[in-house]
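2.7 Reproducibility. Because tokenized structures are sensitive to small changes in the input, we list the exact sequence used for Xanthine dehydrogenase molybdopterin binding subunit, including any N-terminal residues retained from the expression construct. No trimming or masking was applied before prediction.
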Amino acid sequence: MDKSTFEDPKVVISGPMHGSLRHDSAHKHVTGSADYIDDIPEPAGLLHGALGLSDRAHAEIIGIDLSAVAAYPGVVWVFTGKDVPGVNDTSSNGSHDEPLLAETLVQFHGQPIFAVIAETRDAARRAARLAKIDYRDLPHWHDIDGALANGGPLVITPMTLLRGEPETEMLNAAMRLKGQMRIGGQEHFYLEGHIAVAIPGEDDEVTVWSSTQHPSEIQHIVGHVLDIPSNAVTVNVRRMGGGFGGKETQGNQFAALAAIAAKKLGRAIKFRPDRDEDMSATGKRHDFLVDYDVGFDAEGRIHAVDATYAARCGFSSDLSGPVTDRALFHADSSYFYPHVHLQSKPLKTHTVSNTAFRGFGGPQGMLGAERLIEEIAYALGKDPLDIRKLNFYGQPGSGRTLTPYHQEVEDNIIAPVVEELENTSDYRARRNAIIGFNRDSRYIKKGIALTPVKFGISFTMTAFNQAGALVHIYQDGSIHLNHGGTEMGQGLYTKVAQVLADSFQVDIDRVKITATTTAKVPNTSATAASSGSDLNGMAAYDAARQIKERLVAFAAEKWEVAPSDIVFLPNRVRVGEIEIPFPDFIKQAYFARVQLSAAGFYKTPKIHWDRKAGRGTPFFYFAYGAACTEVSIDTLTGEYLIDRTDILHDVGRSLNPAIDLGQVEGAFVQGLGWLTTEELWWDDKGRLRTHAPSTYKIPLASDRPKIFNVRLAEWSENAEATIGRSKAVGEPPFMLAISVLEALSMAVASVADYKVCPRLDAPATPERVLMAVERMKRV
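Resulting structure tokens (single pass, no recycling of outputs):
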């Protein structure tokens, strides 16, 4: 462990932290023995729930006849919003704009109106389809254009970032470009969909197993709808089969419905919607419409930027405020804007309320910035990489370190990251070869792009940047670990266990990783914003520190040595001249009545944010990376292949290089899907038509780059005092996939001899690529 980070002279740097240990459940994932909620043995008398969904996009509910639903064989109870004991609301931000069950008004096709509880899941689902509901249809719009045409209604107050004199400097700029970019949304498509099991207890108590990234919010929402205090609600999460942000708020409704039915009927209840219902009734990544205006000089240096980021938010606010805020926080990508004005437009639409998704608005903001670079490069006839490098943030003292939100970029390493990847990927020679290939090839065209990533780490809601952990050491020297973070396959449990094992210098198999539960660590933040390891690792370290201080004090007194003579060594403790096996040492401490348990806590330092003023330091640090991708397109069909991708990514001093490499690879492929194959489509009745794998195309294993070289920047170390000087790895590598879209754009631009920017929107499906090729032919 890094002594300069923790100022702990009693720990030797030889434990399992920073090692490539396997994911604690990897073998279970592969063999199918990992228990998810649907694998838990079902309690006696378990009942199953199903949703009754609206088939209108926007309408008043005139009448509901549920008699046929209630009469269906096996149905035990049917309930509506009027049967909610507490408040019929599951909004995550206190806005009270998201009813658990719609009562008088439906605002999107697929909105839950009632719930059915039956003896079997099949009976509940079949019965739910028998409802007779009368509607009075109201005007509806399901996309950004429709919202703007209807006055641009907002779900939350927009945010503005302003620095300098953008209006004046735009007029003074030697060159100026305006444009528009459409950026599509994305379905989370977890392997394990949403699910909740509620088990009633005595008095007002209820226990909920939920596939959620935010157990404390589930606890709050369940208490809210049942009108009971949070101390009566226990929420448990051992693992999720994927989260990606979609289980930060979207699990609320299933847990709440299960809990209401469990307390009403006195029996355990399970809600597990099928894939179509899950995709129809839960939120997705926000799609954006970016209007931009950029002023620049003849060299390609940006002078001023004015951009508006309009987003399809859905019918309620959910997390759209912070998502659109983060889009603006990343609308600079890796570039310094001397004068800038950015504004968000979180638009209301009659669609499911969109929510968190890996990157949380950052990818959309960054993609808009890369379009600016691309526009300038084609306007000047230059390599986009040269324009990128010209506009990078500078080092402290350069006068080029201030972001649009007035935070100084003090840890900038984007230039060396890009320079190293430029050399190792042989970018220049390959680009020249590709230009030559395109000159001679009639139908197949190639493209290559090298794009950077700068991603801010921290929740932009300052209060969420806190975490707790509970650590027990038992008499035999085994260690029990519990913290507020949740495991969704990303390896958080393994990393925090490594921190703890390293602190006590014991083998990691001595640390028992236990399910996240609100009964042990209260008031936890969501496992989101890439902060899981930062927050929970530090909280676990704090708990270990407390116990170790007691152990050192005990040993110093018992063996009459100085505290500095007590050192934790691998699986043993040196006290003066003697060495004691760790279990024996702990047993002696127990008999000396030393407290062997501690609750650790951590809050991120230095951060603050004033949304109204658009100023502050919302991020503790930045994570960096770069990707170089080469593609080939067929100009007759629009189909394409990803020939090669080289990635260099900054994770600081990695807590677990093997897990971090997996996160980088997975994030890139997921980003690749967002920008190429994954297209959400609603019809004119507001119905989501891409609601199953038959119509919604996630990337396959065969879609990965044919050559895929991924490396971590091993020379990097976080300048801030994070756990082990590591950096977050969950979200930042997602944006590496922007290199794919930029490479496709170059391939398309070759059809017109690179004279104009193709303005390729996302996702760049083969159809969009083909249409862009046809546009280029007319240039």
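DSSP finds 20 helices and 29 strands in the chain.
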